[in-house]
C-alpha cells in the first residue's frame, strides 16, 4: 500500500481532565512495567531468584534447588540464557545467578557474569549442582529458589511478576513476606534481605498501580485521552529508554546471525515497504533475544518480546511519516497501554501468544500516528484481535520471532482496514458489541478457555 501522509494534530492536546484520577494510575503502570531486562524474562527471573537466595544465605551455596510452575518451565526449556555461552534451561539460569549474578540488578541480573564465571557454571552443571523440579499444582508465574551451605538454608519465592518477591526465609525464619493484595512490583525490586522491606515502601507520585487503582482502570477511551494529554516530561525518560534499547538489539539482530534469522529473512525477500521494515526489525530483536544476546530490552507485560513488539513498529512508522518526536512518544504511550490492558485480563503467562496482544497495541498506535480517530483506533484493535488471536504460546524459543512477524502483519492489515472504514462486526466470533467487550472476550479465552490447551502444551514439552 502506498504511504499516505497523515493529517497531523496541529493543536497541543488539553491537559488530561476528563478522568484525572486515572492520570497517576496510568503513569504508575507505565513506570512499573517498562523496565530493562536482559534476555528472556523467565530464565532471568530464575537467575534473579537464585541470586537473591544466595545473598540471603550470606555464603556461597553448596547446593541449589529450583521449583517452578509449569509455565516457567515452558518458557525456559528451549531459550538461551544470556551471558552463559549458549547454555539453556532452569539449572543453567539458576547456577549463573548464583555464581555471577547481581540481584540488585533485577532483570539485568546476569550482566555481571564473567568468562571465569562461565567456566565455573559449566563445571557445576556437570556435577548436577542445581536440581530443577516442577512445582505441582501451581499455575502462572511461580519460582522457588532454595540454597544450602552446611546447616544454613535460604529460600526465595517469586510469584505473579518476574521480580515479584513473595517471601524470603533464612534458616526457617521469615525475613520478608508480601502482604496479600499488595503489588508485587512494589516489593520485588531490591536485593538483600536486610534492606528489602525498606525498599518496598512507596510514596506520593511514585505510588504503585495497585495502590492507585489497579489495572482495571485501563480502557481504550481513557488510554487515548491519556496519550493525548500526558505531560511528556512525566514519562519521556522511560519511553526514550525503550526506543534506545530496543532499537539497539534489533540492529544487532539484523547485523549478525542470531536464532533463526527471521528478521533478516523478511528483508531478504525484497520488500522494502515500511510494513516489511517494521516486521523485520522487531523479529530481528527477538532473534537476538531468543539466541542469548546479552543486550537489554525494555519489556512490556513482563516480556522482552512484547516490549519489542509494542515499540519498534511504532518507531519505524513514525520515521516513515515524519511525525514529531513528541507524537512518537504519545503513540508509544498508547501502544504500551493497549497491550497492557489486554494482558491484564489474559495474564502474564498463558497459551495465548503475548506477541498478539503486543502487536494489537502497535496496530492501534500506527492508526494514531496517521491521525486516526478513537473510532478508527478501536476498529484496528478489534480487527487485529479477530484476525490473529489463534497463535499459541509453546514456550520461549527462536520461533517467537516468526510469530511476532505474523502478529504484526495482521495488526498492520487491521490498521489498513480501519483506515478504509472496514472491520469485523459484533457477533462474528469473539467480536463484541464494542472494543472493550472484544478485549474482555479474548481475555476470558486466554485466561480460562485456553487453560486446558496450556496444560496439554506443557505436558508435550515436558515429555520431549
Structural description of this entry:
- This protein has helices at residues 21-33, 41-57, 70-76, 90-100, 115-126, 184-187, 193-199, 209-212, 220-229, 236-255, 262-268, 274-290, 304-321, 325-346, 354-369, 374-388, 400-419, 435-449, 451-463, and strands at 36-38, 63-68, 130-134, 142-149, 152-159, 165-170, 173-177, 296-298.
- It is globular and about 70 Å long.
- It is built from 19 helices and eight strands.
- With 464 residues, the protein is an alpha+beta fold.
- It folds into two domains: 41-206, 60s Ribosomal Protein L30, Chain: A; 230-463, no CATH class.
| Strand composition percent | 5-15%
Quickly count the domains.
2
Please mark out the parts with pLDDT under 50 across 5 or more consecutive residues, or reply none.
1-16, 185-213
Helix fraction, binned, reads 40-55%
Mean pLDDT: 86
The helix count comes to: 19
Number of extended strands:
8
Strand order of the largest sheet: 3-2-4-5-6-7
* Secondary structural class: alpha+beta
Rg is 22 Å
Distance between the termini: 43 Å
Q: How is the main sheet built?
A: 6 strands, mixed
**Which term fits the overall shape?**
globular
Order of helices and strands: HEHEHHHEEEEEHHHHHHHEHHHHHHH
Topology:
Elements: H1 21-33, E1 36-38, H2 41-57, E2 63-68, H3 70-76, H4 90-100, H5 115-126, E3 130-134, E4 142-149, E5 152-159, E6 165-170, E7 173-177, H6 184-187, H7 193-199, H8 209-212, H9 220-229, H10 236-255, H11 262-268, H12 274-290, E8 296-298, H13 304-321, H14 325-346, H15 354-369, H16 374-388, H17 400-419, H18 435-449, H19 451-463
Parallel strand pairs: 2-3
Antiparallel strand pairs: 1-8, 2-4, 4-5, 5-6, 6-7
Helix pairs in contact: 2-4, 3-19, 4-5, 9-14, 10-12, 10-13, 11-12, 12-13, 12-17, 13-14, 13-15, 14-15, 14-18, 15-16, 15-17, 16-17, 16-18
